Amino acid sequence: MTLSILSSSLKGSLVRAARISAATSASRPASVWTSRLYSTGANNNSTGDKDNNKEAAPAQDSTAASDSEAAAAADASAQPADGAKSAHEEALAAKDKQIAECKDRLLRTLADMENLRQRTAKEVANTKDYAVQKFAKDMLDTVDILAMAIQNVPQEEISEGSSNTHLKSLHVGVSMTRDELLKTLRRYGVESYNPIDEKFDPNLHQANFQVPMPGKEPGTVFDVQKIGFMIKGRVLRPAQVGVVQSTD
């Protein structure tokens, strides 16, 4: 009976507590429940943001890796471009060097051709000018013989009062022959020169002998045995002369 009473009393207490709890819950404002809901939602959002951040972090890492790969690819593509540019510049430099060498060879060739042209023209002119040199030199002996023939005729025999008309005519004929021969030689550039009383020049004169001559300047030509000849400014034969010797 005592247990029954305790049980009934316990049940009554529990019922009263339940009623008090229900009444307390009913009397609480809606804002409390709203704040709890917001708090729960915020907690849920915070948890979601954390999850989203966790998901976004790998995405950012993946983007950074992609950017690094793109930069590396750009560098790799730039390196061949730089290499191609360098090779192109080297090829241009090589071509410029070849052009300079070709230009230098061309200028040298042109200079050689010009020198050859001038040398050939000079040789042709010399050949033309001195083609008769040997023939003219051989003719000088004939000129000398005619000159000796004229000089060996006594002046009194060819004077106006002389009656030796044949010798006079012969003398005139020989003199005319000699003069005509000299004129012919002059047409081919051969000129005669007589250095009497001139200063001795070893380039133009050949001294056959030297004699002291009072009243004459030493080193001058006082006698001409054979006159000299030149062809186009070149000595064909030096004059054979006698030179005044110094008495010192």
TrEMBL record:
GO terms for biological process: protein folding; protein import into mitochondrial matrix. One of its GO terms (molecular function) is protein homodimerization activity. Residues 42-92 are annotated as: Disordered. Residues 59-84 have a biased composition (Low complexity). It is found in: Mitochondrion matrix. Its main location: mitochondrion. The keyword Lipoprotein does not apply. One of its GO terms (cellular component) is PAM complex, Tim23 associated import motor. Pfam families: GrpE. Essential component of the PAM complex, a complex required for the translocation of transit peptide-containing proteins from the inner membrane into the mitochondrial matrix in an ATP-dependent manner. PANTHER family: GRPE PROTEIN, GRPE PROTEIN HOMOLOG, MITOCHONDRIAL. This is GrpE protein homolog. It comes from Dissophora globulifera. The gene is MGE1.
